[in-house]
Amino acid sequence: MNDELEELAVRASHGDEPALAEILQLVRPQVQRRVAKFLPHREDAEEAVQDTLMTVATKIHTFKGSGTFAGWLTVVATNCARQTYRSLKRRSVEQSAEVLPESVDPRTTSVIAGSRLDLLEALEALESNHPQLVQPLVLRDLGAMTYAEIAAELAVPLGTVKARIHQARKQVAEHLTVR
After folding, report:
1. Residue 113, Cα to own-chain centre: how many angstroms?
2. Is the pLDDT of residue 27 over 50?
3. What is the reported pTM?
4. Interval 38-58: pLDDT, tens
5. CA geometry: angle 107, 109, 111, nearest 5 deg
6. Which distant-in-sequence residues (6+ apart) come within 8 Å of 148 by Cβ?
7. Which one, of 144, 139, 121, 136, lies nearest residue 168 by Cα?
8. Each residue's pLDDT tens digit, 93-141
9. Tag placement on the chain: N or C end, fewer CB within 10 Å?
10. What distance in Å separates the CA atoms of residue 178 and residue 56, rounded to the nearest whole number?
11. Cβ contacts of 152 within 8 Å, gap of 6 or more
């Protein structure tokens, strides 16, 4: 499946429309699982899935095949989930002056949802302070890629990848324990 997906991605990046359509269909469940790690509310996750698939469809030409398509997709899906979260956060601030909702939002009462949102906040803080640390952490801890795969994906030495992931985990842990 992975080799087939990589081949489809290369074909799609060169303008093969049927290959792109097949990729979008094949990766949808994977993207859904990926963004659900961040966005526990189903409608929010679906918004991020749609954004991810749209980004894949419109930006597939930027995939050059130097890294893996799976790695590229992980970064795109994570970025879309984070963007959806930022948008939700902005909307909640804008709506805070309005009438409070009658029903309770499960995102504010679920411990699991809270921990996912805390992770998004930690990633936002990490990106603002150390942007070079975000992608290796996402690829390793959310994309389940090996250190060697990440080194190849990012075209940096293995030691650099290990150091960045270590530093990123340390920064995220500090952010999570401060709360």
Report:
1. 16
2. yes
3. 0.66
4. 887 888 889 999 999 999 999
5. 90
6. 158
7. 136
8. 665 544 444 444 444 433 344 456 677 788 888 888 898 988 888 888 8
9. N
10. 36
11. 67, 68
C-alpha to C-alpha distance for 28 and 162, rounded to whole angstroms: 30
* DSSP per-residue letters across the chain: -HHHHHHHHHHHHTT-HHHHHHHHHHHHHHHHHHHHTT--SHHHHHHHHHHHHHHHHHHGGG--SSS-HHHHHHHHHHHHHHHHHHHHHHHHHHHTTSPPPSSPPHHHH-HHHHHHHHHHHHHHHHHHH-GGGHHHHIIIIIT---HHHHHHHHTS-HHHHHHHHHHHHHHHHHHHHH-
10/17 Cα distance (integer angstroms): 12
